[in-house]
Structure formats: C-alpha cells, structure tokens
What we know:
The protein is built from 13 helices and seven strands. The chain is an alpha+beta fold. The strands form two sheets. Strands 1-5-4-3-2 form a five-stranded antiparallel beta sheet. Strands 6-7 form a two-stranded antiparallel sheet.
Amino acid sequence: MIKNIVHFNVQQIADSGQCFRMNNIGNDTYSVVAYNKYLEIEQLDKNQVDFKCNNEDFETLWADYFDLNYDYGNVVHSIHSNDDTFLKKAVEYGEGIRILKQDLWETIVSFIISQRKSIPAIKSTIEKLCQKFGEKKIFEGKVYYTFPSPQVIAEQSMEDLQGLALGYRDKYILNTAKTIANGTINLENIKQMSYDEAILELKNLSGVGEKVANCVALYGMHKIDAFPIDVWIKRVVDTYYGGFFDTNIYKGFNGIIQQYMFYYMKNSYKP
C-alpha cells in the first residue's frame, strides 16, 4: 500500500532511539513488530512509502502507530520561524522523524532495559525476552515473536530471566510486571492521566526514574510535550544553549523537538 507522506523517513524513525523492534532488512525496507503484528515498510522516495499490509491493518493500526494524522509540518514551520540555528539544522537533518504510538507496557520494559545499554544491546535483549516468553507467530513465511504480557513475566522467577543479558534490570522488570499484573498500578488508568500525574505514577514502578518516566510518557503515551533528558540532550543543552533550554518556546510539542535534537546530535556531533 503506497502512501504519499511528507515529513516521514523510515530510516530516521528506526534510528531515533524510541523503538527497539524496528530493523533494517535490506536497502530501504524495515520490519516492525508492534501490538502482536508484523509489518514491512519501504521508503520508495522522499515522500513515498510502501506499507506492505492490507488496508484494514493500515487504517486500524499502522496509520495511528506512525502518527500520520499529526501535523509535523506545523512543527517544522515553528522551528523555522524562530532564530535558533541549531534547531534549524537539526530539523533539516531529521525532519522525517515521527513519534511512534507504542504499547505502554512494552515501552516501560524497553526503557528499563535501555539504562546504560547501547541500542544494539537493547535490541538484542528485547528480542531474547520476546523469543523466550512471547508467542511465536508466522506472517507470510516470516517468523516473529510477540512482546510478553506483564502477566506472563510476573509468573517467572529470577532464574527464568537469566541468560537474557538483563543484568541488574532483571529484578526491576520482574517487580514491575508483578505490580501491574496484580493491579497495584493500572496501565489503563495511567493512560487517562495528565502528563504530571502520569510521571508521578510511572515513577512508582521499580526501575523507573525521571528520565525513563519521560521516555515512557513520550513514546508509550504520546505525551508529546515530554522532554526526556539523556546524555545526548544534556550535551545539546550545555553546548548550544548555555545549560538551559526554554521548553516554553515549543510548548505542546517539546517531545518532537527533543527527537530532532537527539537524532542530529547523535549522528553529526564531532567533539
């Protein structure tokens, strides 16, 4: 299914650090596993993308997952309307990035795992977790594994989690799964909360601090005013903004700004 979409680049989205089950499988084609479904997506040219799925799956899942109904052109225009040389360069470099609407539970686990790990290591650990505890599925001859539910993880022991390269994060994931599975924290309730309320509730989960909570809010709840600060964003703020970035300037879509900053700094910065 070929779609004409401006401000959309599959490679930039895949490499933006927000999703760990989106992988290049040859040339400009990527595979994605999300919400128990498998998709292959190919960038044909700058504004043309081939979603290799039927119309029902595109309309009911993938169009929303890739945030196709949000006006990213307005964000780009806002950046070019301000006198911010760094951000202008950042958006020119990564204007095809979109904030994916990922599953909340999967995002929580993924960003607990992400702490002090490289992106290849994060991807490897998540894939091992899915292969061991997820459901095996086959789509048009392609084998993939679903992301295991909190209930499935909660039934495991610490020994069961060994061999997945989780390190010290194993206890965080097991405790968080149990907290959600037994209803102490309800993910559906969190989805209805304001940004500030959600951050506070997420930080009650084992292994979730300020940075992870903001990543979860942005990538798992589409709270696009969240502004996670990692080593790359701190470097941006310290190097180009004198240690302070005024998020009021881009209030309402700071998370998109953060992604442009992260992608540009990570891929082009030369100390």
